[in-house]
Amino acid sequence: MSLFGSLGISGSGIDAAQTWLNTVAGNIANMNDTSPTDQATYGEQTPVFVPTATPGQVGDGVTVAGIQEGDTTGIIQFDPTNPQADAKGEVRVPDVQLSSQMVDMIQAQTDFQANTAALADAKTAYQSALTLGT
Amino acid sequence: MDGIVNALQFAVDGVAQQQQATANNLANADTPGYTAQDVSFEASLQQAIDAPGGGTASVIVSADPATAASDGNNVDTGKQLVNGQEETLQYQTMVDMLNAQFRLISGAAGGTFQ
Q1: Which chain B residues contact residue A24 at CB under 8 A?
Q2: What distance in Å separates the CA atoms of residue A114 and residue A109, rounded to the nearest whole number?
Q3: What is the 3-state secondary structure (H, E, C) of B74-87?
């Protein structure tokens, strides 16, 4: 256990939540991308969370092991006015659901807040420890 | 284990570890397959205090037995947030008691009691 260990743990949780918010923002920003039907489209991004742990001891926070890219096949859509449309007037669009992105966003936000609350608790406790012997 | 200062010192360490576990559980609140950690030292400390001739207390880290959700994660965010608040108050109380002990000692040693 490092000195002020809780602060680093909550920090890792905040970082993870921030990464999640970033991927959600990216997914929503690219929701309406189009690409020619003979090319791949944007794949929904999801962060992969992995606990940082030593067996038998209190864990050491969370890390983002990577960003998982979803299906790039997307959906074929009829959009004849799009300059990228093929001979049949079709384009490829990403398979990103706004509803699930919004739910993820709320979850990421709650995570962020919970970690901030834990950080504030730890800070209060450590500050009181600094009054020892004074 | 004997002496109020020793017991308080051990308890402060124990609560600090509980707080670390709470922070870790919250950091992993959305990690698939994560099992929450519980830290306990109270029973062990009580045993050590009661033991004739003094015993040794230890801090025990165990897995939270709560049922996991569909993604294999069993962190209860509400419970962890409450634990965090409680641990902070416990920590502050014990630091206050340690400071009170130190004031007594310094008073007995010829200093002031405040």
Answers
A1: none
A2: 9
A3: CCCHHHHHHHHHHH
